[in-house]
Amino acid sequence: xxxxxxxxxxxxxxxxxxxxxxxxxxxxxxxxxxxxxxxxxxxxxxxxxxxxxxxxxxxxxxxxxxxxxx
Length: 70
Known about the structure:
Layout: E1 3-8, E2 14-18, H1 26-29, H2 39-44, E3 56-60, E4 62-63, E5 68-69
Antiparallel strand pairs: 1-2, 1-3, 4-5
């Protein structure tokens, strides 16, 4: 899987995480969900699990040593 940088648009906190699957269920995508994260990542972004969904940006992480995406 590739690594991505996930940033909360609410708290401004960022987390680097490994992207291991192909995303949320189709019903969630229709509701605007772009990525599922673990509870650990969600909390690291500065959110409480009770918040459910939050606005984030997701960016690919580029391996600067090899000049390739990881």
